[in-house]
């Protein structure tokens, strides 16, 4: 029986629904919701940042509807602008929750008592100035464990320390907020039924905070940190709790907006979730602090450090601006990481979800697309059919078959015979329009008797698929990619400003303007993230996109003319079959390598062509590390 699924897989999908991406990951065992420190091992999460009042309201409504609850809220009005941030997690237990905001102290107190009576517990508290008046906000979550709790606000430092002494015997602090030039403190406490060791520090200078952070690093994890600007300098308040389970965590403070985004994306790649976010004013302007918690097995992957070192060596020894790498093994994302910069001038770090040109890796995608259409076509599309049976308007000298277009035995010319300058009327909306520019150029050999590399062969294939499906090739690829959840894969369209793209660089690391790719969609005109490149490879290997028989056919050369099969190069490594495809064009290089039997996928994406870096060697080396590690087990 055929094993096949058209449904989208949730593995590390990235949806651009909010100011920062939403992260959807497999749900693992979650913490007891009665715990004051709910700390699931793995959960879906999302965050928003710098939202105005109306945007925050929309986010709260949308995330409630989609089954999330807020675990952290921050509202800041530095420079007179209302800016809100929130962190959400999947509401696995279906807990009720409420968010109060923009209330004066009397109203906030009354509403807090009402929600307590209704069975909710305060988990986060905020204070800020709005139109010159002190206002308060809070997150309340259903008190599933019936924990006793208490909160105070507008405390002086001395009052906050006295409360610390009063509550330390039986309760644990779950939130601290510091505000105003005095400054003032707000604290939330809950029963410490699990007797979790904790530490609360208030009124720390920057140096005191740094020293405390380093002292606790081995035993405790940072639960939350907040900061305020005072006449005496910046002051910090923070809560640390015992790092039960020895799971990884990370925290950063005093970040610029771009610095925060860089770390956000870095930790998303590495398998962490954001748990807390604060925005505050400093002498140098608005700054951000964030805390992250391990949310997958990726931070503990046995080969993480070795792969990090290998990619870092490639970056440092060649000076390439940026490299991103993804490794999937057995359908599981083992490694995702960007190195260097996606945009040097703007200090945007490279990451695993930024899009870049796939170049000739597009041909491997064309192979899977074609075989998928053949599988579902009931015989209406076959590799052995003459191309002109589908394209009767093609000149008579095109005697190749559909399969020969895909395996490069069709003898269509490459750039030596059909230079890029031929395509002067782009952008091209269809493959047919592109082929019209070179259809009269003679073939360069006898089809089926020789092998010649050709990007333009795939343009002719694209026209075939247009006629077969009735869709322009760009829409066909985009619809097909979305069907499998590969939402970043699409034809390159530099005019589309809605795509988060890496900047492309010359061999001398000078930023360059992207070229037109529309004339070669299947041959070298697709773009996407390194994550989706790896996921594509994994979906091909696990039977989601193709049956095993089709996969085997696609990665088996039809003859001994060349090791090139149907969109893929082929070979053996350590006694295992592999299929691969590399790509290079002005401003970028790419590589994809898959091992069907080992179900291993390695993907590499860079933003420079030339200058000595070698994604093929890099990908091969990383794959070798994984295979060697498998062999030792």
UniProtKB/TrEMBL annotation:
InterPro entries: AmpC-like, Beta-lactam-related, Beta-lactam/transpept-like, PGH-like_rpt. SUPFAM superfamilies: beta-lactamase/transpeptidase-like. Residues 307-616 form the Beta-lactamase-related domain. GO terms for molecular function: hydrolase activity. Keywords: Hydrolase, Signal. The keyword Hydrolase applies. It comes from Prauserella oleivorans. The keyword Signal applies. This is Serine hydrolase. Residues 1-31 form the signal peptide.
